[in-house]
Amino acid sequence: MTNEIKIRHYSQKTLKSYTNWVYKLKSYTRLQDPQALSTSDVKSFLTSLAVEKNMSASSQNLAFNALLFFFRHVLGQEFGPIDGVVRAKQKPYIPVVLTREEIDKVIQHLTSPFDLVVQLLYGCGLRLFECLGLRVNAFNFDFGVLTIHDGKGKKDRTVPLPHMLLPELNKQLEKVKALHAKDLEARYDGVFMFDNMENKYPNSPREFVWQWFFPATYLTHIPETGQRRRYHLHESQVQKAIRHAVQKAQIPKRVSSHTFRHSFASHLLQANYDIRTIQELLGHSDVRTTMIYTHTIKSQTQKEAKSPLDF
Question: What count of other Cβ atoms lies within 10 Å of the Cβ of residue 77?
Fold first, then answer.
């Protein structure tokens, strides 16, 4: 499973999630030999998730995708028809959205670098892992553009940098420069790299352009190799900081890091931006995913029908 997922360059989260569902199926079938598993075993397992475990439709779909991948790519078997499974009803999902005033209140209760992280989440519509995974070379200050490499589905995209953030972004860049110089002096082994990059370019982990824009406070020691590497800020730290800031701001909404991305899309839609433009900025493959944000704002359609020639 690990090899098949790594070959396709899926994320660590996907590996962890898919492996977890395979273990759950293994437990459900009482450690039965995987080669002896059939579609009926999976049907029974998925039905139990809805009937006995009362799991949501999204969890069932994730389980189905994980086991479909396991059968096809690990066991080398066709999954076969999966009809007749009791499924949880898919509920319409409307994301939580903050007003601009609420966002400003949250940011006021955040300290550095968490305030800048949240401003990028909202100002550029980033996912949390995209924001924390930014490296120095993602920022093009001359053209005011941010490039998100390896977004969800390993897709790259560009978004405009908010002009009001440029001074703060430059300050953060100077902090990264100072930390990088300190790390080089301490003869660290560089930042963690991706795929086969380090084998191709052995010096890349220590080059400035590949340093994390939001580096972790401490170096990570790797016992197997004895190396000391720099990782980026951990997502749990950001989520914790956001929770505390929301409490201090006394905002009666369930807010997570993703709420700022939802707010980004909703506010652009409210400003009459084209849905296709918003889709590109968010990096959605399907415009139907972006259409969910039409439910987060009031309708602003014209009551009186007019010809486009009269606009």
Answer: 15
